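Appendix B. One record, verbatim.
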Amino acid sequence: MAKTPSSILATQFIILSLLSSLAIILVQGEDKGFVRSLDPKLLGLKKEKLSHFRFYWHDIYSGKNPSAVGVVRAPTNSSTLFGSVSMIDDPLTQGPELSSKLWGRAQGFYASASQQEVGLLMAMNFHFIEGKYNGSTVSVLGRNQVFNKVREMPIIGGSGLFRFARGYVEARTHSFTPSTGDAIVEYNVYVLHY
């Protein structure tokens, strides 16, 4: 039996309708009211990978163009600077020298959140400006006991190539100048992302 143009068109319409229905089912998933399950592939998410970045964070209070600025002062009777808050836009460089290659900036704030020791609440985004990660961010939110040799803080998310990111960072003080408050900290970032 020869197929007519109208029967071919009808067959194509039926196949297109079935595929559209399947796509709607995949996107909607199981309906739970305001929440639904999604297939990660529909968002372009492929295999999860672990990446390691190492860079130096320059927290500069001194000079004409500081990258850290105190926005709330601690009470004068606090030995831990409890209550102080600083806003940051710190350079992230390849090496410990400020003149080494700039990979991005740490933007956010930190606050002294402990009355017993110097323990900071760190809330910052590592905003990358180099290579394929240009424009992507990794978000860090955690406790930083600055006088410990190694501090660990969680990665709570990201954007761009770091959507759905999770992991942790390790911070190690490279140098600190008490007279100015300037610090250089080595960060090792271990991030799971798609």
